[in-house]
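Sequence, structure tokens passed on for absentees:
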Amino acid sequence: MRFDGIHLAGIGTHLPDRVSTEDAVAAGRYPAAERESSGLLSIGDAGDLPAPDMAIRAANAALKQADHEAAEICKLFHSTVHYQGPDVWSAPHYIVRNTVDRPISAIEVRHGCLGIIESLELGANHLLADPSRTAVLLTTSDNFNTPTVDRWTVSKLFVLADGAGAIVLSTRPGFARLVATGARSIPRMEELHRGGEQMFPPGITRGEPLDLERRRTYWARQWAAGSPPPMGHLGDLVAEVVRETVAEAELTMDDITRVAHVSFAQDALRDTFLDPIGIDEARGTWEFVRRTGHAGPSDHVAGLEHLWTTGAVRTGDHVLLLGGTPGFEVACAIVRITEDAAGGR
């Protein structure tokens, strides 16, 4: 979907203190062989800081940069992966209360690691639907320091990290313009991420830990017994989504200066996201995300902020935000930088 007149007026993050993967190995939490193969150097660990409080810090930074009055913010979209606080409670409204403090609608977006990309599209369409609307606030945050998650072993594809990000999406010019978004899924692959687990009552309500490797092992056993897992070529899906979105933006991959992607182990990142669109780590954000870990949708916000504030992208450059989520779904967004960052190198 192509957009005109929608801008990124402010961006902010909260990236907590980092724990080195070397220290995690020494503490017996992360297998040395996996550390070596992953290429990951550190991850963000927020301790006991609640995820919504991290979102508030990121949001206030984005609002300050955007220089919008609170009255101009007409909606909040808050993206999450993990639990935010008490059951039957609204983290989005808590964030609104502690930022713009207005009686606006506040919605939680449960779209896995694509939450912020989906929020860009939702927010843009919300603004375009009514010319009187000026800006929406997009936030995302997660803290995986909970008893049912072992961030170091939950998956061999990534190490879960904590963090938060925020974007003020506006009809007024900012530091970047939203050019286009795109998404596509392979619905039959939802079963791959279910991995034989019963649907009700959910495992978390029975105290079962999150274990994506156990689900992968389930399908390995099924395959060995003659029942192959639901198949799909993820690289082809990534290539298709990016090709369609870039074409809709009336660009080519040569016009894409940098790619802000999720934080995966190096080989998985190459195989799933980089090689299918013909770019290497230097054109992505590998050197940044290998130090932050996989913080869900915050990866995209932090990557974009890093590229812009360091001067890695400047006015006229295009940044592709790219990721995937269980389902299996791939999505991307293209933004054009319209203003250099103050002090960017």
Observations:
- The mean pLDDT is 95.
